[in-house]
């Protein structure tokens, strides 16, 4: 693949803790990483800022910046500051410092992409963090199981409502429909050596990228090695009761022409041969091979950055020596944040708020 000394050009698409896990992994073998982040969150600190200022929700973007911050003392300090959440009962209670900083920069520069670039410079980020759209989006979902008649379909609007529904999510769409993508995100996908989609909240952080026409077209046209990373388990709310196979089926329903090279799954999460046969048939719809690796932090439903890095690097044709100094140094404050935060989605509706 590429011989760039910075490593392959990697684009990771997602949001919240799932994208944080991917970025914490790929930064171990590349300094050319672009995060393309969902902008539909309407809960917690992000939701409050979004509704008050009418800007894109900053929480998932803040998380991506934290994952890519410089692996040194200064980068660690700034990461801790951006991730710090105010306590107490006043107007600031529950807000992350980073959310407020991004909101302020966006108002000053009148451009969320410029605001992200400015803060990335402060953090020493190698690469870029981009929103998938410049305007806040809304998730609308078709949900069954909310009425006595299980055939009745109701429409729920909002990321939190979709993530926490006791019903069964059938399909999601974006409002406004067909939003324009951020041009830099489109260019990054077209130039990428590796594109990673997932893990994360399937209906609210992963699938939305395929519903932005310009992003989807770029993904279809890309010659990169395209990898879908599956979740370690179903999430309460939007994917409750989903098998690994079902995750791929709903992905195909939303993007029937989507083609990828590899589906990456945790070996312990899908261990029975019958389950693997089902996953293989579902992956065939994308033209993808399924690779099984041990990916989780033992005893948790969190992807371990080193294991995920090894798996993704192998798919990209890169050898990661276990004694590599740079890799060792990159076990940073941001990765400790991932481990102390618990699962990649600690609670339904709290994705990177």
TrEMBL record:
**Ranges for region Disordered:** 322-353
Q: Where in the cell is it found?
A: Cytoplasm
The protein's matches in InterPro entries, at most eight in alphabetical order, are given as: CofD (IPR002882), CofD-like_dom_sf (IPR038136), Gluconeogen_factor (IPR010119)
Q: Which UniProt keywords apply?
A: Cytoplasm
Q: Which domain of life is it from?
A: Bacteria
> What's a Pfam family in this record?
CofD
Keyword Chloroplast present in the record's keywords: the answer is no
Question: Where does it mainly reside?
Answer: cytoplasm
Q: What does this protein do?
A: Required for morphogenesis under gluconeogenic growth conditions.
- What NCBIfam families does the annotation carry? CofD_related (TIGR01826)
* HAMAP family linked to this entry: Gluconeogen_factor
Q: Which family does it belong to?
A: Belongs to the gluconeogenesis factor family.
PANTHER family reported for this sequence:
GLUCONEOGENESIS FACTOR-RELATED (PTHR30135:SF3), UNCHARACTERIZED PROTEIN YVCK-RELATED (PTHR30135)
Protein's UniProt name: Putative gluconeogenesis factor
- The source organism is Tomitella cavernea
Q: What is the lineage of its organism?
A: Bacteria, Bacillati, Actinomycetota, Actinomycetes, Mycobacteriales
**Which gene carries the instructions for this protein?**
yvcK
